[in-house]
Amino acid sequence: MDITDAFEPGHRGRQWGARQAQLDERLSRHSPTGSPTHSRSSTPGSDHSPDRRPRPVRLVDLQAGGWSFAARDTRGGVWVWGEGNGRFMGAQTWENEYYEVSEASRIPLPCRAEAIAQGRNHLLVLDRDNLVWELLAWGKAYHHTAPALTAPSQTGASAPGRGPHVVQVAAGWTHSAALTSGGEVNVWFPFTREYDDVCTPESELHGPLGVDEDDLSRALRWGTVGDVVVTLPPIPARPQWTEEYSLQHWDDWEARRTDKELAASQRVVKIACGHEFLLALKGSGEVWLIPTTHERIASATWQYLPFFSSPSINHITVQYRTIVSYSTPSDASATSAVLVAGVETLDPASTSTLRPFDLPALDGKVVIQVVAGDWHYAALTAQGELFTWGANTEGQLGLGAAAQAGHGVPVQETPTQVQFPKDGERDPFVFAITAAGMHTGALLLGGKKRAAEPEPIVAGAGWPSSAQAEGVDPGVAGRGRFDHMFRIGLAGARGMRGGGFLGRGFGGGGPLAPGGPG
Fold this sequence. Notes:
Elements: H1 20-30, E1 59-64, E2 68-73, E3 78-83, E4 100-107, E5 113-118, E6 123-127, E7 132-137, E8 140-144, H2 147-150, E9 166-171, E10 176-180, E11 185-188, H3 193-197, E12 206-209, E13 220-225, E14 230-231, H4 250-255, H5 259-264, E15 268-273, E16 277-282, E17 287-291, E18 303-304, E19 315-319, E20 322-327, E21 337-342, H6 348-351, E22 367-372, E23 376-381, E24 386-391, E25 411-417, E26 430-436, E27 439-445, E28 486-492
Parallel strand pairs: 8-13
Antiparallel strand pairs: 1-2, 2-3, 3-4, 5-6, 6-7, 7-8, 9-10, 10-11, 11-14, 12-13, 15-16, 16-17, 17-18, 19-20, 20-21, 22-23, 23-24, 24-25, 26-27, 27-28
């Protein structure tokens, strides 16, 4: 389903850009630093200025949660739609974690987002001052004050000549994590009493920060959260394995590196969070796993995954209990390798022997991104092609499904290319993908400018109604109007009101899945 029209002007979500003076006053009064951080013409995520028409919304990142999607635009705005934590009919406001946002809406955060990470039912935002924000509901945000997440400085951490302290945030099912520039991995557990006890009390939250005082249904209140961070122990040296794996060429690789390069390669460069575990990638291509349950985090130890490690590996992905490590083309190699498996147990004896399954259909493809849902997978190539495989019970593969949800092709074992409608004479080009639960999303390069509109406008938030979506098979990749800068294609999931792409639905696993969520 194509939801590009949801970001055109004139819809409800477009109201967030009005009343600049009022917004600046609130930012000055309640900014995390205690002082104004944005001028009237550069309000966080703002889409209006006093003398100009609304500017286009250009999305650069799309993330999927258990029942929702989140997106980041070029101006640091964060958009969400769906539910934060499943369906509950009694939720009346979006400060409730179960509240359904049935239209793409921008969260009026008092900051500009540099990166986002979405867990099963929570959202992390890393802002341009290098502060980490956390949302357990769309209408409330807390920024972390723990020294491990704010040292060596808070505001201005990305100033010229000063590198950011936190370089990546990641969110799993029940935990969150942050990676520092020095390679330290910090985790915490936002759904615990310990976390609640150090959050700003309800009566002391800043805000509400909205734009229209007559309608605060999409307003935000915010505060801080104290030090609940656990810094994980350093990853040990790689153990020696007697069984050689075809992708491991450690001796040759190490022989071509200086001592300084070898030392630097031991730093963690990427992290990914799953269901009660965290995956870490070293600069050397080693992939390590550590259990992350709240009760046992203090005694958790790192486990090496030899069959997912190689000097060529430079990316990792985790969703639920699916792990993916893969290499993208580089100066040293023009090929890609994609290694996928399901983690059934966190026992060290099992993880050390865990092997990926074969994906011959991706051989020869220049894969640059791989994502996974609970039961399905997607891979993006450098040519802008999207391939999906795995369970298709809710049409989440974008390959088409029966009209009645839940009765499509149950499992597609071979990675198959998703066909998007052409945009005039231009072939579709996917540049980012995401997946979670039983749904998938993709960002595509957009279409031609309208001749009558020299300054194209793509900014709005009305969710397509069921009437607009009439005749669109929810299992087919996005179709509809493709004007302006980008297209958003969504597939799968069971029944958000008026949209049909809320999230997870229910269904059994296929042979490519490790087993469904409990």
